[in-house]
Amino acid sequence: MSTAAAADVPVIVLAGFLGAGKTTLLNHVLRRAGDTRLGVIVNDFGMVNVDALLVASQVDGVVGFGNGCLCCATDSDGFEDAVSRLARTDVDAVLVEASGIAEPRSLIRRVVAMDDSLVAYGGLVYVLDAAAFGDGAAAEAAGGLGFDAVLRQARDADLIVVNKADLVGPDELELIGRRLDEVNDTAARVITAEAAIDPGLLVDARPRARSAEPQQLSLDALLRDEDDEHRPDEHGQAHENHDHLHERYQQHTWEHDGPVNPRALALLLERPPRGCYRIKGWAHVDSQVYTGAVELSAVGGRIRATRTGSRPGARNVVVLIGVDMASSQIEEACARLVEIDPDDEFGALSLLRYDPVSVGPADDAVETGGD
Predict the structure, then answer these.
(1) Which residue segment(s) compose the domain that 282 sits in?
(2) Counting beta carbons within 10 angstroms of the beta carbon of residue 20, is it exposed (0 to 12), middle (13 to 18) or buried (19 or more)?
């Protein structure tokens, strides 16, 4: 029985042009990590708000924070080594800030090409400066960056964070949405004011044993409590658009008893509904090729369908996670999962080709995206 899929540590690439809000997003996710343990690779420790996170340890260039997260600063030459080191420190995911290391597409290729069984590509999170993007002339004057440069990088994104939305009007936001749709109409999209996204959108925290002894309240928890308080601004006005701009992710759970259509399930993983960032779950397959459970995961065009043997009595559970997901597409895709075709003798192969055991070590991950 293989547990390869469960052991993978997703490596999530964080990209965006200078000033878009990558550092803000990074610090927000670290600060709000909760039970999720994140490893972070940056070009400079100055990016991370160390004071707010309370340094607990510093060993061999890796800084440990009081909330269990870790940070490592490296240049391009030490990138692969840094990823491998962090992947072996009980983190749930590794976030890589692309600025100063590589262009997003080049960095994605390096992650995918890594010869490390613990590492898996976890998708591209692209941060876009709505204020600069909404004024193409100003963006070009600031650094030669216009619509085309931003759209070229956003094309590869799995999650697009449209940041600084509070600085533009609804017409500008609509324009940005239309331009993004032209190059990438399937990526999950979050509208934010301070690059504030829920860490749960990116990764799940793995179950860990908790101490029965009383725990000291960490600075991280104190800061979260302060953030959760609803404070009026200096004019005494409540932030009415706070919840709108700091969108929370959605989670759609589909459950079913009995076997599923493996070909339809493979299609769902390969072509997720619009706005879906990642998919996880379990499904039961009953075919001449294989009968048993399959553990599922899909993010960033990377799919795993790992055979786990018999799970008597277990229900099929497929969870789709994203932002503003297309409900009609979800309903259609899930309806096809129960349409069993008894004549499709080898339909299971369309799903099981994503089993790392069946495809061999050289093809540990089967990519479905472009270059």
Answers:
(1) 249-353
(2) buried
For residues 227-236, give the mean pLDDT. 42
Which residues, other chains included, contact 234 with Cβ-Cβ below 8 Å and sequence gap of 6+? none
Based on the domain organization, do 164 and 297 belong to the same domain?
Answer: no
- Say whether pLDDT at 334 is over 90: yes
Question: Model pTM?
Answer: 0.72
Instruction: Give CA 149 to chain center in angstroms.
Output: 23
Alpha helices in the chain (DSSP H): 4-7, 22-31, 50-53, 79-87, 104-112, 130-133, 136-143, 147-154, 170-183, 219-228, 242-245, 262-270, 327-336, 349-352, 356-359
Identify the CA nearest to 55 among candidates 42, 72, 67.
Answer: 67
Which residue type does 203 have? V
**Helix (H/G/I), strand (E/B), else coil: 169:** coil
Q: How many other CB atoms are there within 10 angstroms of residue 213's CB atom?
A: 5
Count of C-beta atoms within a 10 Å radius of residue 104: 24
CATH number of the domain residue 302 falls in: 3.30.1220.10
What pLDDT is recorded for position 132? 84
Summarize the confidence of residues 182-203 as an average pLDDT.
89
Among 144-148, 166-170, 219-223, the range scoring the smallest mean pLDDT is 219-223
267 with 192, same domain: the answer is: no
**Do residues 177 and 253 both lie within one domain?**
no
**Assigned domain for 3 exists:** no
Number of folded domains in the chain? 2
Helix, coil or strand: residue 139: helix
